[in-house]
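Researcher: I'd like a candidate sequence for this fold, 299 residues long. If you have to choose between options at a position, lean toward the conservative one.
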């Protein structure tokens, strides 16, 4: 097998050059299968058990099959397949392509367009959002998804190769689909939510540390220590608090979800974010990626 650092760099390069596949993305097919299985099993009693079975059926077979297949291939072929799998688990370029137009629209004074673009990547209600609220939503999404769609996959690839990265990405996708605290998913989606918390625990904190080193380190570490425990998600808290501190801006705060105003803790410190801070967040993520690659060089 080729060196881990070379494979990581090749996967990131493929993601940057090719971007997200416009058609036939494997995760789209996976999502359809997950929707079908959820509708079939999320009924009647024992929904907690049914959710665990559904999670295992969706997440475990493909990585195990991939691990077996890689073991049968020559080193070069196994390396190429591993890079291809890593490419499909990464979403760095997609994050850039979704958030850059938001910053552009805001800088051009196109508020309605910025609202519509931001609504595609966040679940909060932005129908009455001003420039600051839109910028805050886009920046938070970029920082958090930097972990979910980039650093988490890189971490698990470094730990266990393409099968581990694939397992992480499938589990993360199921958490995004099923990990809600509502009547439909409170029990059925509990395994998906807890599995994502476990798999993301270490990489989320390494992501937060990389954000801190790549930005205002002292402020990022202080915000992480003080604010992350107040956030509902054990993994998003450190990532977003450290990221906001690294940028020196104020994120978090109240937001409207499903017609209800939700009082969220504040993250970071400094002024409210402006349109240019979306680009700064992307640059922070890229500097953190470089740090990770440098640390992976001995591997």
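Model: Candidate sequence:
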């Amino acid at each position: 097998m080729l060196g881990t650092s070379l494979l990581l760099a090749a996967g990131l390069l493929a993601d940057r050059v090719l971007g997200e596949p416009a058609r036939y993305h494997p995760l789209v097919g996976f999502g359809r299968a997950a929707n079908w299985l959820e509708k079939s099993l999320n009924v009647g009693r024992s929904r907690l058990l049914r959710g665990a079975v559904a999670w295992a059926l969706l997440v475990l077979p493909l990585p195990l099959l991939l691990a077996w297949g890689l073991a049968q291939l020559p080193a070069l072929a196994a390396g190429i397949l591993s890079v291809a799998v890593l490419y499909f688990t990464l979403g760095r370029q997609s994050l850039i392509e979704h958030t850059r137009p938001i910053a552009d629209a805001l800088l051009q004074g196109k508020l309605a367009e910025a609202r519509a673009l931001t609504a595609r990547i966040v679940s909060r209600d932005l129908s009455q959002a001003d420039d600051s609220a839109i910028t805050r939503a886009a920046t938070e999404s970029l920082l958090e998804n930097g972990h979910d769609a980039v650093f988490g996959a890189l971490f698990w690839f470094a730990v266990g190769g393409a099968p581990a990265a694939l397992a992480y990405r499938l589990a993360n996708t199921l958490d995004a689909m099923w990990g809600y605290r509502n009547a439909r998913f409170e029990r059925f989606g509990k395994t998906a939510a807890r599995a994502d918390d476990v798999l993301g625990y270490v990489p989320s904190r390494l992501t937060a540390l990389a954000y801190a080193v790549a930005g205002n380190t002292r402020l990022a570490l202080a915000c992480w220590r003080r604010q992350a425990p107040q956030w509902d998600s054990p993994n998003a808290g450190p990532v977003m608090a450290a990221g906001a501190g690294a940028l020196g801006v104020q994120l978090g705060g109240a937001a409207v979800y499903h017609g209800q105003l939700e009082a969220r803790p504040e993250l970071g410190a400094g002024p409210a974010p402006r349109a240019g801070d979306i680009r700064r967040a992307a640059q922070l993520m890229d500097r953190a990626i470089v740090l990770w690659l440098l640390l992976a060089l001995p591997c």
